Amino acid sequence: MATPSPLHDQPSGTAMKPEWQLRLYVAGSTPRSSAALENLKRLCETHLAGRYSIEVVDLLVNPQLAAGDQILAVPTLVRKFPEPIRKIIGDLSNEERVLVGLDVKPLR
User: Fold this and answer.
1) Where is the KaiB domain (predicted)?
2) Burial level of 21, CB count in 10 A (0-12/13-18/19+)?
C-alpha cells in the first residue's frame, strides 16, 4: 500500500508558504478599504491563483502595526514576499498600476 504524499495529505495552503505574501493596511470598513480588498482579491485570483496569501491589518484595531511597514496612508498594500518589499497606496482599482507595482507584470 502506497503512502500518500504529504502535500496531498494536508489542507490546501498548509504544505508550504505561498509564493506571494501580501498585507493590506486599512482603517475600518470604509468603502475605500472594502474596494481595495475586493480589487486585491480579484487581481490575485486572476494573476496569482493558488500562489498568494493576504493579511488584512485594520489600523483602527491595531494602530501600532503601522510603524513596522512605515504606513502613512490607508489603504496601503505591502508586498512582503517576494522581496524587495513594495508598497501601493490607494483602492487598487488601476489593475495595470497594481500589477506593475507588485512586479507581477513588467512595465511596458
Assistant:
1) 23-104
2) middle
